[in-house]
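Hi R.,

Here's the chain you asked about this morning:
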Amino acid sequence: MKPTDIGAPEYFHKVVDCQWACPAHTPVPEYIRLIAAGRYDDAYMVNWKSNVFPGILGRTCDRPCEPACRRSRVEDLPVDDAHGAALGAAGAAPGAAREPVAICRLKRVAADNKDDIRSRLPKLPKKKNGKRIACVGAGPASLTVARDLAPHGYHVVVYDGDVKAGGMIRSQIPRFRLPEEVIDEEVGYILGLGIEFRAGRRVDSMKALLAEGYAAVFVGSGAPRGRDLDVPGRKEAAKHVHIGIDWLASVSFGHIKKISKRVIVLGGGNTAMDCCRTSKRLGGEDVKVIVRSGFDQMKASPWEKEDAAHEGIPMLNYLVPKEFTHHKGKLTGVSFEKVAAQYDEKGRRSLKPTGEPDQHFECDEVLVAVGQENAFPWIEQDCGIAFDESGMPVVDKTTFQSSLPGVYFGGDAAFGPKNIIWAVAHGHEAAVSIDKFCQGEDVAKRPPPMVHLMSQKMGIHEWSYDNEIALDRRYKVPWRDVSQTLKNIKVEVEIGFDRATAWKEAERCLNCDVQTVFINTKCIECDACVDICPMDCISFTINGEERELRTRLSAPATNLAQDLYISETLRTGRIMAKDEDVCLHCGLCAERCPTGAWDMQKFLLETTPAGPACRSRAPRKEPVPA
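And the predicted structure, written out as tokens:
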């Protein structure tokens, strides 16, 4: 194997599993350490710089960082006390699981405990740069574009058909999950950067918008159309069958304040979970979620399903809606066909009828939450923007540019429904493209990230970070009692960590951004680091092909998704090979080394944002309009 180039930005970035998995590349361990130190303002600003909406995402993020968390791979399994089994042994408690750090809910801690941070927000230039940018839709993608461009002199105009900015954040996430004051605060930070928000102004024509002379247009209009079901009885019972996202928006804006007692929610995603939980708060007593897939295959996040189950909402699986039954225009129920999952030799699933009798469930209203679709009736076919066979715009996945130069798409409008953090990531990249486009540069030439490595050594055996490995299990975020939360749709269910519990949870972080850096010229091959490593992840051996080398390390490196750190050839002809997969970043190797061949260095990766840093040359000098 070739020696590892630790100067390559992606190498240590990949070792920081949570940041690598985050679409916005938030430096997670950095802000968790700040929370542990009680520096909530600083922790909030680290988040705000990369993910824009810390308080919102701290309650609603889909958490791609948490499944990637190293703790889920290296933590000992919970013990079964009844058998007195050792941690991680075969006697682990039934259903036991290694659990990641509560990254998402710690983000909320920073938001909930910060002081007034408005003085730390970007300052606007005294003069605009003469470029006007239009953003269609006031959701997370458009707001990110606006936030990134406004400080660099762009005049950003945001259009939205709703009277308040926020898009799906405001219209589709219930207040018992996300209080309106949190939305107002964080959306307000962005609009306060000199953004022109044209509330209640729906864009009906792309041609007309382009004719207004904008330097660039960003489309962040989301996926506004909920999928319907074309089954018998749908038209006859239409008055009592509602599209989930439209119904949630009507609830959010106060147009709907009650629902019938018997409700069926069709669908297994997060929208379905929001629909069923909202129904319980608006008068629904017998509320069921009915899904065509199995429970484990439901698209809803595990914690969303857990929240719904905690509120007494049953979920019935492998039932396909067959007919809406009705009498004299009134819905009486839904009939379902029972199916079972079958898999072919390639592991592809299909649902086959079991032959059992159809099942009928009585209800008064149905909420259909079986997916969302994009809709662009306002973009004329001859305006120069190409669409694919599925009706989606043809968008470059790196630059987010459409087939019409100067028009960009992001969020759900670009590639279909995802989530807030992906919309933010799209917004950052689109803002870079818009900035480069407006400066006459090639948008395909992307700026490299900025990388910093800094030694954490403070003494012979002292580091500037807490390298002790906490053995605590994951702490659960407390909930308000159901007797309170089901009575009022605006009462937030999760209370959030208090400061003391947040500190304990923060201490579970393994500081994966503090890297073990090996200096081969200082190594005397005493193997002291091998002896002290608690995970047996360091080996000194003869080099070889990767697949073969992985099998003869101190502990076989079986996770091919994680790299091996390979040194230059040492004096004895051996190399140092370290399995990055299971390293605890504890620093014991560096503490034991008598020559300082190991050092603990904090790695910080910052993606290059829109503005002068992303440009390949100095901006052109142009007169600024009066």
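The chain is about 25% helix and 20% strand.

Let me know if you need anything else.
M.
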